[in-house]
């Protein structure tokens, strides 16, 4: 009968929806239980920080519980529901639907039961009439409404909250994150984090033989009251310990002077040990002495001077500098490094080096030497080069000191006092016709050289100016002045 098949299909849809809802409910109950068990085991591991063996037991107990629960509560029930769906109890389902729809009450269940009975004591006409009556009443009813989804929603909500809570807790709580990682990696050994760690300076380092060394040790975490510094030089077989107490900032300081041999060292306290570091002592070349010869420019008439073990130079521009140094080791190269990044390579002769250069400006420099083992001198000293100033010469007119009116005498005596810090190169008398009734005035000056001594730094110059060759007429005016030049042949006379 077609109506019977339609009702049975609708009842099968009810079974399908009911089993789906029950399946969701069981799955989220399983999720909640698994999260609770996982959190419990993580909490246990976080508190105990167990070894690999015990973590392995915990891990497999957890996996066993999860698999057993899933198989019994989810997978087995799913198979059972699937088999039930293949051959459902229509009468039972009909009763559930009838309980939801008061209009049909038990009528649907009774009719389905009547149709399924093999031995009937009722006439076919009566059964068909009863079934058609029920079919007409249920044709427009949605049987799926008989299955309530509210309870499933409640379990889904609870399971989702438990799952999210577990995930957030594991992600944000460091101890839980670490415990989860250790639990997942159950076959690895994890050392508990130390109460503190050492921060050591300079760690591995290379120093020059004879240098001082300062070792500073700081602890991050708890602060021990004291530490032990263990050292072992190249000629020792065992480490020797020295107890060190912290200074006011909480730093442990160990100093040793004039280190001659390489040594290894490490720090320890409360059974916590740092890594082993090494201070390597290298026999770097050192400058055992040097000499600088300063030759001032010839015009200054200054004597050559020598300075020993003093690299600071003060000289006139144009001075020639010759620098000679001695090294403690045979050299492969040497250079003077200037502050403007230029370099002057030095000539090498075994343990000696020399170079020459001219002073042109103020700068700084350092001596860098490299031995045949390619080791350089440590911390080269920076020296300065200062330029001495060459002042402009001075001149003062002694006589005459005012304007002159010529009479019958055509000669004038000029007297001037000159001075300069390094001497003179020349002196001139400059004159021009500046006013006349008879001829045009001259704009440019004419020069008459005056002999001066280049050796003196101060002098009085006497000069007789003969004006007769100029044939001056009455009312004509001459303007004149004296000028003197120093002997700076480096930057040009001033």
Can you give a write-up of this model?
The chain is an alpha+beta fold. Helix content is 31%, strand content 33%. The strands form 6 sheets. Strands 2, 4, 5, 7, 8 and 9 form a 6-stranded mixed β-sheet that branches. A 5-stranded antiparallel β-sheet has the order 11-10-13-17-16, with no helix packed on it. Helix 1 runs parallel beside helix 6 (150-172), helix 1 (2-48) packs across helix 7 (174-184) and helix 4 crosses helix 5 (124-138). It is elongated. The termini are far apart.
Distance between the termini: 134 Å
Arithmetic mean pLDDT: 81
Number of helical segments? 7
**Structural class assignment:** alpha+beta
Oligomer: single chain
Largest sheet entry: 6 strands, mixed
> Which parts are unreliable, with pLDDT below 50 for 5 consecutive residues or more?
none
Radius of gyration, in angstroms, nearest whole number:
56 Å
Overall helicity = 25-40%
The count of β-strands is 25
Gross morphology is elongated
Short note summarizing the structure:
This protein has 494 residues and is α+β, with helices and mostly antiparallel strands. The chain has seven helices and 25 strands.
Which short descriptors sum up this protein?
five-stranded antiparallel sheet; six-stranded mixed sheet; 494 residues; 7 helices; alpha+beta
């Amino acid at each position: 009968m077609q109506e019977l098949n339609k009702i049975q299909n609708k009842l099968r849809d009810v079974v399908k929806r009911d089993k789906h809802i029950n399946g969701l409910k069981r799955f989220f109950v399983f999720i909640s239980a698994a999260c609770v068990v996982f959190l419990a085991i993580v909490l246990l591991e976080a508190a105990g920080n167990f070894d690999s063996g015990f973590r392995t037991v915990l891990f497999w107990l957890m996996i066993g519980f999860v698999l057993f629960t899933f198989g019994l509560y989810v997978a087995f029930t799913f198979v059972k529901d699937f088999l039930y769906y293949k051959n459902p109890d229509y009468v039972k389902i009909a009763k559930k639907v009838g309980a939801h729809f008061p209009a049909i009450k038990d009528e649907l269940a009774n009719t389905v039961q009547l149709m399924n009975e093999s031995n009937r004591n009722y006439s076919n006409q009566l059964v068909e009439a009863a079934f058609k009556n029920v079919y007409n009443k249920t044709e427009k009813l949605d049987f799926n409404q008989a299955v309530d989804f509210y309870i499933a929603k409640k379990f889904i909500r609870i399971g989702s909250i438990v799952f999210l809570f577990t995930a957030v807790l594991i992600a944000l709580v460091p101890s839980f994150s670490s415990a989860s990682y250790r639990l997942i990696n159950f076959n690895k050994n994890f050392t508990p984090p130390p109460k503190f760690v050492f921060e050591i300076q300079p760690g591995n380092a290379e120093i020059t033989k004879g240098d001082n060394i300062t070792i500073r040790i700081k602890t991050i975490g708890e602060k021990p009251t004291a530490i032990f510094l263990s050292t072992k030089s190249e000629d020792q077989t065992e480490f020797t310990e020295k107890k060190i107490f912290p200074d006011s900032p909480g730093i442990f300081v160990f100093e040793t002077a004039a280190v001659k041999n390489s040594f290894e060292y490490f720090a320890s306290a409360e059974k916590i040990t740092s890594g082993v570091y090494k201070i390597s002592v290298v026999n770097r070349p050192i400058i055992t002495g040097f000499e600088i010869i300063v030759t001032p420019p010839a015009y200054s008439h200054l004597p050559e001077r020598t300075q020993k073990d003093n690299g600071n130079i003060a000289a006139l521009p144009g001075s020639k500098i010759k620098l000679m140094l001695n090294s403690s080791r045979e050299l492969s190269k040497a250079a003077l490094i200037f502050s403007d990044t230029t370099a002057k390579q030095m000539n090498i002769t075994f343990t000696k080096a020399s170079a020459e250069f001219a002073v042109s400006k103020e700068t700084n420099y350092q001596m860098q030497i490299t031995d045949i083992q390619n080791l350089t001198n440590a911390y080269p000293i920076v020296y300065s080069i200062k330029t001495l100033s060459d002042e402009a010469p001075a001149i003062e007119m002694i006589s005459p000191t005012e304007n002159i009116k010529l009479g019958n005498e055509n000669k004038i005596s000029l007297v001037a006092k000159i001075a300069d810090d390094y001497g003179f190169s020349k002196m001139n008398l400059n004159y021009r016709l500046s006013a006349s009734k008879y001829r045009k005035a001259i704009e440019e000056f004419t020069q008459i050289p005056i002999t001066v001594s280049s050796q003196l730094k101060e002098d009085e110059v006497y000069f007789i100016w003969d004006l007769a060759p100029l044939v001056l007429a009455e009312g004509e005016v001459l303007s004149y002045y004296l000028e003197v030049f120093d002997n700076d042949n480096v930057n040009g006379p001033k």
